[in-house]
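=== Structural record ===
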Amino acid sequence: MNKRGRTNLTVLSRLLVFFSLTALLSGCASLGKGVAEAVLEKSENEDTRLCQVWGKPFAGIEADLVKKPGKTKVLFVHGVGDHSPGYTTQFLEKLAKELNLNVRSETQKNIDLITPLFPGKDLGNLRVTHLLNEQSGKELTFYELTWSVVTRQEKALLAFDNSGEYDFRRAKINGMLKKFSNDTGPDPIIYLGQSRLPILSAFSQSFCWMATGDWEDLPENGKHECMNLTDAHAEHIANDNYVFISHSLGSRITTDGMQRIASLLASPGKYLPATPKDTLSIKAIQALQNKHISMFMLSNQLPILQLGRELPEVAGQEKNYCDPKGTDYKKRMVNETEIIAFSDPNDLLSYGIPHEFAEKYIDSRLCAKITNVNINIAKIMDSFGITDFANPMEAHVGYDQDDRVIAMIAKGIGNPGTSSLIKQRCEFTKEIK
């Protein structure tokens, strides 16, 4: 969701909370304080929002920023709702500040994604920004995937419902809710249909561009396809650090995208048209198999988006694929996929990831390790005489602007470089087998 959409949603959600609570409290003469006074009093209280972390310690992005050779590359994948390139600007500025990256590229590179698998189809935009600190030598290349173009045309089917012919019949608040519903509700449904493969191809193309070279090697703009991962790219893959950040449906896309790449490596002809033999070289595959990849999932929805779907191609075989002594160890995709799943208990659309879920529903070839972050994004309200209420909309959309979330992505938890904010505000419980 872009900044304007987020602002409209925030205004809408506050109005809904205000009117709902006002209606509940109408006629209640026992209120000793006015509405405004109660809200102000609550806002001045100390921030005691929950932040609990269970799992393995993780280092965050900063640990590898000065690693030589190799570069750190981050890919952000958005969730439901129509997005335009640049939707991560506010998040990226906060992340850059946390990492002390005070220099950025004058312009961004914009690649219009295409693939021979879907000739002539626009798969979206990959917007790339380069950040660095000239004194320390730290640098980061940030890739922002916008796949909304794939679902935009299908969602146009509902445009009539937002037109004046229909919308004027609704109450204003309900009209705002209906527009929001028409923008966000169809995306998971569309993703389960014929648009799934184009969206996953957009992810694969983005990952391919991350793996083929550095900032200076990328095209400035225009339509381009990334197909070849050859011996020449093996060194980049071996030395670079890859990080994925996703929100809501974007986490399902990222996980499915990685599982699809795992299947592609095992059977190239399944997803690719006839291509030269060097499209996926042995050296490139071997370099990928030794990678540690981090995924930060904001408002994680993997459990609910698994409902009604088939099981992964390879599941419940972690020991075979991830243990060096396992029978299929040489067939793994990566050495380890570190998943850090953020969920607010008051976000009605997010879920933690139980370890049983990972074993059954995440492809064993990813060698996934799970850390769950149970964090209050929305404040618990204690106003108007009503306690224990948190705005579920704010709880769903606010992850990428929360200072604690950004500090954990930047500097991790349970390590010497952990941010002081996280040490003060979050509880960490280390889990061992």
